[in-house]
Amino acid sequence: MSGWGEYGAAWACFLGAHMIPALPGPRGWLIGRLGRRGYLAAFSLLSIGLLYWLILAAGRAPHVPLWDQPGWSRWLVNVAMPAAVLVAALARGMSGLVAAFALWAGAHLVANGDLSHAILFGGMLAFALSGLLRSGLPKAFRVTWRRLVLAVLAWAALLHLHPLVIGVSPLPA
């Protein structure tokens, strides 16, 4: 499977993996079997794997240009990403992670001007914003040296591994 078919399948799996556990029955059953930490670990690994597949599938879908990618758009992403990582690392609760995904998706939406990536980042932005409507913006932050160092290391890893893992350098030309 390739092209739009793979992309559609990746979206279906990603959305299914996030909607099915949101139902009280499956989530309770999974937590009962795996424990709360086991469930969160399994759900996190599954989510990361499916997100990675979705990103790769977007890149393999037929290229349909929608808008030119302005030169400043990579700068936007390179300013937004450290902020997103900081919010995710310092905020208490899931609202920080959801806000970070909204920043990530919004910045990448501007910087990627083809149909498959507009669907990817526009869809992720809508998904994140709906989560923020339910949970609200982060209300409390845990600012510690350890969290700050982890945030900087996570951002540096994302920046330097992006060409290897995603196939495109995030740095402006």
Report on the architecture of this protein.
The chain is mostly helical and 173 residues long. The protein has 2 domains: 1-62; 65-173, no CATH class. It has helices spanning 3-19, 24-60, 72-90, 94-111, 115-135, 145-165. The protein is globular and about 50 Å long. The mean pLDDT is 93.
Q: TL;DR?
A:
This protein is mostly helical and 173 residues long. Helices cover 77% and strands 0% of the residues. The chain is built from six helices and no strands.
Number of strands: 0
Order of helices and strands: HHHHHH
Report on the biggest sheet: none
What is the approximate shape? globular
Average pLDDT for all residues: 93
Number of domains: 2
Beta content: under 5%
Based on secondary structure, the structural category is mainly alpha
Terminal CA distance: 33 Å
Note the main attributes of this structure.
single chain, mainly alpha, 2 domains
Layout: helices, strands, pairs:
Layout: H1 3-19, H2 24-60, H3 72-90, H4 94-111, H5 115-135, H6 145-165
Helix pairs in contact: 1-2, 3-4, 3-6, 4-5
